[in-house]
Specification:
Elements: H1 5-25, E1 33-35, E2 39-45, E3 51-58, E4 60-62, E5 75-76, E6 81-83, E7 86-90, E8 101-105, E9 111-115, E10 119-126
Antiparallel strand pairs: 1-5, 1-10, 2-3, 2-10, 4-8, 6-7, 7-10, 8-9
C-alpha cells in the first residue's frame, strides 16, 4: 500500500497543536480549591441520639495512629461539596475507620483533642 505523505503531514500538523495544548493546560483542567479561612469541624457524639457541635475551629489534624499533628492543607484537588464559596469535606467512614481527628490549641499552648469530625468546612474559592 502506498501512503500519500501529504495526508500524513496534514494529520500530524493537526495533531501536534492539539497535543501541545493538552500538555500545557492538562494541569489546569483539574479543579483546585484554595482555602481562605480557618477550618470548622462538625463533631457529633452518640449513636442513636446524636448531638452535634458545629462551632469547633481547629488548628491541626491527626490520623489517630501515632499522635503526630498536621496543619490543615491550604489547597485541595477535590472537595466533597462546593457551595456558596464554602468547601465541605466529609469523613464518610468515621464509624468504620476514622480518617482524621480534630485538634485545637488552648491559650496555654496545649493541644486539645476534639474528637473525630463528621465533616470539615471552610471558606474557599475554585481556581
Amino acid at each position: 500500500m502506498i501512503m500519500d505523505y501529504s495526508v500524513v503531514q496534514r494529520r500530524c500538523a493537526l495533531a501536534l497543536p492539539i497535543m501541545a495544548v493538552a500538555l500545557i493546560t492538562g494541569s489546569e483542567l483539574r479543579a483546585e480549591y484554595i482555602r481562605t479561612s480557618s477550618v470548622g469541624a462538625t463533631i457529633c457524639k452518640g449513636f442513636i441520639v446524636r448531638r452535634c457541635s458545629t462551632n469547633n475551629t481547629i488548628q491541626a489534624i491527626s490520623d489517630g495512629r501515632d499522635g503526630r499533628l498536621f496543619e490543615f492543607a491550604e489547597t485541595f484537588d477535590r472537595v466533597d461539596e462546593f457551595r456558596n464559596g464554602r468547601c465541605y469535606l466529609y469523613n464518610a467512614y468515621r464509624w468504620y475507620d476514622p480518617e482524621y481527628h480534630a485538634h485545637r490549641s488552648t491559650p496555654e499552648g496545649v493541644w486539645q483533642h476534639l474528637g473525630v469530625p463528621d465533616s470539615f468546612s471552610f471558606d474557599c474559592f475554585k481556581r
